Amino acid sequence: MKDLQATFFLHLPPIIANGMQWCQQAEDLLACSPSWRDLKMWCVDLLSKACKSDNEVDLIADILYNITPKLLKCAEDSKLEDTFAHSFVDPIIEAVFGSADIFQRHWANGALLGQKRKCRIEYKPDWVVYIKSWTSRLDLAVLELKRPSGSNNGPVSDFVKLGRQMKTMLGKLVDIGVESPVVCGILVEGKECTIFRKWLQSIIIAKHSPSATAAESK
User: Is the pTM of this model over 0.85?
Assistant: First the structure.
């Protein structure tokens, strides 16, 4: 378990301004109604610059390469939740969690904690990232998603569902003896994304707070 804890803090790359500048350039370019080819050529040039950089954060260029051309027909791709998830959300979280072989990821219909038959309450987040050992599965982050203009038709909001799922995940890590456990939740509501983290302040008190909020600029 100590090896797992060390993995979380193994490397924090430096943050520089390239990412914000590139996002602004993408927004300005889209405002000019470019052709698909011109947009793709800009993305290729951006990706080439990122590959020459020593800063891992510059790999945000890979996200822009995958997402920016799709924004030309954003309205059409946002009508269905599955299409919205795989066109715009998946490239972002894949760039974050896909870089480490230790993480496994599933979209939709996967029961939380890998204990479908044993859990009294079965949670099915829209997306989950976990680590799997020989004896158990450790869920570390979950995501709940609603497409733009989508509404929550269930009796429980996605915000409440996310909190309950994170509580269950944290309890599992405590039960197996993980020191200083932390779990994350990602709430995507159309063009807005809020990231939460939950951890133990003491043996009986759990803290839950938003750690970041991002809004899509266009």
Answer: no
